[in-house]
Sequence to fold (106 residues):
Amino acid sequence: MSTLSVLPYFPFRLVRIIKQTVSTDSDILKLTAVPDQGFSPKCHVCGSKTQRIHSQEKRSIRDLDICSTRVWINCSYRKIVCMPCNRIVVEDLEFFEPYSRVTRRL
Ligand SMILES: [Zn+2]
Fold:
């Protein structure tokens, strides 16, 4: 088990990486990310902040490879009640689009 941290490669300010698992035989790095509780969730449509959380979801998102290792981020995110939009929306964590399975930088 390597103790090398890959965290400098993941400068996403609204989430925290809480776990990293390297599977050396298959060259896959799996990260687990959760929203940083220090930030209020914000609507991905209008940018409004809210504390009204509707539900929690998870999604696996493909990120940039590190050398020959494929990187997947298992990210928790929240669905929030946005009053200006008058609907339930996915929060904006800034590094992936709400319905995408890859990161913005990929
Ligand atoms: Zn909104």
